[in-house]
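Hey L., structure's done. Input below.
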Amino acid sequence: MQVRVVCFGELKKWLGAAAAAAKGRILRGSEITAGPSTSLRCAQDDSIGGVAGDVVSRVSKARPGAPSFPRRESEVGRNRRLRFPSLAPGKRRKAGAPGFCGKAAWIGWVMTAGLATGLGPGLAAQDLTLHVDVKLVSVFVNVTDRNGAIVGGLTREDFAVAEDGRPQQIALFERQSELPLNLTLAIDTSGSVHKDVAEETDAARRFAHALMRPQDQMSLLEFATEVRELTPFTSKVSQIDRGLSQLRGDFATALYDAIYLGADRLGRTQGRKVLVLVSDGGDTASNITYAKALEQTLRNEVMIYSIIDVPIEASAGRDLGGEHALITLAEQTGGKSFYVSDGGLSKAFAKVSDDLRTQYLLGYYPKKQEPGKQFHRVVVTIPRAASQDFNIRHKTGYYMDPVAKGR
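Output:
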């Protein structure tokens, strides 16, 4: 018999490690298979009490009359001494390694308990599916000092996280996250900025070559009157180069359509999700509103970096409202905005790259959530320091339902 584990939400991010521990295999990026005598375990003993209350599991079958698996979360939640043997005795998880151990161990316990107690020998030759949903809220954080210098070397103990005003316990902490980077570069080729296309192409090409690692992928959009995907997600910079050579201009600007489409495509990926916009902020052709574009971005946990290319420095010829929209989109999603006028496009791209390389990753399992509330506000602080000592950037919150309804 094979047991299939289907994982939802943030748990997908650590499937590679969990599958390796189970000596199973990953299917379509969101499933693990393992034999009936194999339980999912991790390389370090780990208590699962803090995770259990956030997990909903069941064993289901394709045909009617299948037995259901009893809910055990409350029992496990009280038994905080429950631990699992490590794969290699004495081997410890490296400091800063992804904190997947509790989740992997919990799955292993459910699989073992279910097969041992609830299902009976008559099902031994049949496949079972175990559904596991763990909501780990991930927050990428950048910290700078009063002078704008990047602050490194902070630890988990330096940070505090609150959701809707309620303190949360940090369960996951990483510096300079090694999670795969999924980045969409969206370039405005409308009439107001088309004169800069040659410079944009050259700077974007250098940006892609400098940033991409083997585990990363990038896609390329251009937007003017319409939005066009020139290059789908790829880890090959040569394909990004080819897409950049196909930029062409038009008159109008569908900025919010590009943001909505970019966030939607990024939402289907796993890891860090970043949308880099190069535009003056004007929008003259979108079917999507600013509010819907922002909502789609937050629902899909996408960070926006805005590179603002002002065509006319005199305020009479600038779309100040559009510039403000680009700045606000970046602030709300945990990204940042840069003006091309402050050193040129190449310098702006370099700042984006530096920012992405110096992020902290904080993760927590929400506690005491208000029932029925869809959007939850997140605040990250450094309690030991005065509020003016550090500038802390992160997303303002998240939606419980990742799917935006309607336009």
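DSSP finds ten helices and 19 strands in the chain. The CA atoms of residues 334 and 395 lie 4 Å apart.

-- N.
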